[in-house]
Write a structure and sequence with these properties.
By secondary structure, this protein is mostly helical.
Length: about 375
């Protein structure tokens, strides 16, 4: 009779809400067993679908970044380069970025935060592989090692991340939002954010740790709100409409505002530091902040065994190390090969234009037997 009573359209949210007291106690079942059995796959089909969306979204983002990079290189090699925003190829990359981010957004509606957030390493490693294949960049030994470590870490994350399914409803988000754990977390986060912002604005400190810490603190709110909005949309499609609750729009506003300020501080960091430095540090800070937010707000690790937590942390460390190896010294090895024109040197008229050879790694070379070499040798003999 009890099973039949839960057959109504809105009873799934009520059942999830009734299960909240059990989620606040350790020892709750289903927090992750780390077993790749057939039963494990059957119970985690929804989570695996979220993992598929996240991986696919990150790979699409990798492709989009390389398309935009290729468009920059093509424009730089033109004699009269156009603005990048007038390039159809560049806009194609932007559109693919939007598609990839949409996949990541949808993934949070099907899988836990602590599972989706660390999979961002797939975007970095995938970009390195795609650039090596299509842009003919060097594929170093450290890149191969980093990709291997990132894939091994992702495997451990998928296997040992929490697999307890939560139905994200508006009533559940309201209960989580006013919980004492989250309130303490938000107060501490606001204090730390204000202190870092004071040192950044008033004291003029622009260290990369300060800037990316500000990004990470905002990212925790972004991840919480993204999962809430995505989960409520998913629940509205599959069961009962949740978009009429005010908490949905509160979370939506938090999501947009935190994303905007994240981009602001992240752009500031990329202007001051190399991309090869910003990308791995930001990945570590963002992932750590997202995991902490998922643990505190959504309580995704309650009841998890010690071995499960240990292997999950090991998977995170392997993915972090893989990202560091892939991005290490990459900015120094792949310098922008800009168009070089010596025709405007005062007192010297030269008609030859020297530009990079697209078939070699060296640039600034003049083809053998050029007229400029002969003319220079002739001038020396006459002198």
């Amino acid at each position: 009779m009890a099973a039949r009573a839960l057959g109504g359209p809105g009873d799934a949210a009520s059942a999830a809400l009734d299960g909240l007291p059990q989620n606040f106690t350790y020892g709750a079942p289903g927090a992750g067993n780390g077993s790749l059995s057939r039963e494990w796959y059957r119970r985690n089909q929804i989570h695996l679908f979220g993992v598929f969306l996240a991986i696919l979204g990150n790979l699409v983002i990798s492709i989009s970044l390389n398309i935009q990079k290729y468009s920059y290189l093509r424009l730089a090699q033109q004699e009269h380069p156009r603005p990048f925003f007038k390039s159809a190829l560049w806009w194609c990359g932007v559109a693919l970025t939007a598609v990839g981010e949409t996949g990541n957004f949808a993934a949070y509606g099907f899988a836990p935060v602590t599972l989706i957030a660390p999979l961002g390493c797939m975007s970095v490693t995938g970009s390195a592989f795609i650039s090596a294949v299509f842009l003919k960049e060097n594929l170093r030994a450290s890149d191969l090692l980093g990709m291997t470590l990132a894939f091994a870490g992702s495997y451990l994350l998928v296997n040992f991340a929490p697999n307890r399914t939560q139905t994200i409803s508006a009533r559940m988000i309201q209960c989580y939002f006013v919980g004492w754990q989250f309130l303490i977390y938000v107060i501490l986060e606001i204090l730390i954010f204000c202190i870092l912002l004071y040192f950044h604005k008033r004291k003029g400190m622009k260290h990369i740790v300060i800037l990316l810490s500000l990004v990470a603190l905002l990212a925790s709110l972004t991840v919480i709100s993204v999962k809430a909005v995505s989960g409520m949309i998913t629940f509205s499609v599959t069961d009962k409409m949740q978009l009429t609750y005010p908490i949905f729009y509160v979370m939506f506003i938090i999501m947009i505002a935190s994303c905007v300020f994240q981009v602001k501080f992240l752009n500031h960091a990329t202007r001051l530091y190399n991309t090869a430095t910003v990308v791995p540090v930001n990945h570590v800070f963002f992932t750590t902040s997202a995991i902490i937010a998922g643990i505190i707000f959504y309580k995704e690790f309650l009841g998890a065994a010690f071995l499960t937590i240990f292997i999950y942390i090991l998977g995170c460390l392997l993915s972090f190390l893989g990202v560091f190896l892939v991005t290490r010294n990459r900015e120094k090895e792949h310098l922008p090969q800009s168009y070089i024109d010596f025709g405007n040197i005062p007192g010297k008229q030269m008609l030859d234009k020297i530009q990079p050879d697209s078939n070699s790694l060296s640039y600034g070379t003049v083809p053998d037997g050029s007229d400029s070499t002969k003319s220079q040798s002739g001038e020396k003999k006459e002198a």
